[in-house]
Amino acid sequence: MAKQIHHFNSVNQRLERTQSDYKIIGIGLYGGDAAALTKAAAVLKRAGVPNANRSFIVQVLVRRLDEEIRTLSEDEALSIFRERYPRRPLALAASRRRVGKPTERKQAHGR
Q1: Which site among 7, 26, 80, 104 is 20 to 30 Å from 98 CA-CA?
Q2: Radius of gyration of the chain from its Cα atoms, rounded to whole angstroms
Q3: pTM
Q4: Is residue 42 part of a domain?
Q5: Long-range contacts of 59-67 (CB under 8 A, 24+ apart)
Q6: pLDDT for residue 5 is more than 90
Q7: DSSP string, 5-25
Q8: Does residue 1 register a pLDDT over 50?
Q9: Residue 73 included in any domain
Q10: Is residue 108 part of a domain?
């Protein structure tokens, strides 16, 4: 992770942050996946990595993925995901089937 570096702006006499390539993103995870990240962070903290947290784990895994697929063709990269993750874990996801507007749904369900 890139460290935030400051510089002195002589025009306004202030210390300012320099631009960073660090981005904050939002991702959706299933409960078991989030728990696995939390558990991995706890294991690393006990092993002596004080800054280990879920974000740290994801950053490490993204870099590993990048290294793994960097030299592969699109077809080879796709085959890795097909072999390792043939289906998304959607079995526990709630149904997204809807019947019209909220008032129509209540009527459809006899409410």
Answers
A1: 26
A2: 22
A3: 0.58
A4: no
A5: 59/1
A6: no
A7: -EEEETTTTEEEEPP------
A8: no
A9: yes
A10: no
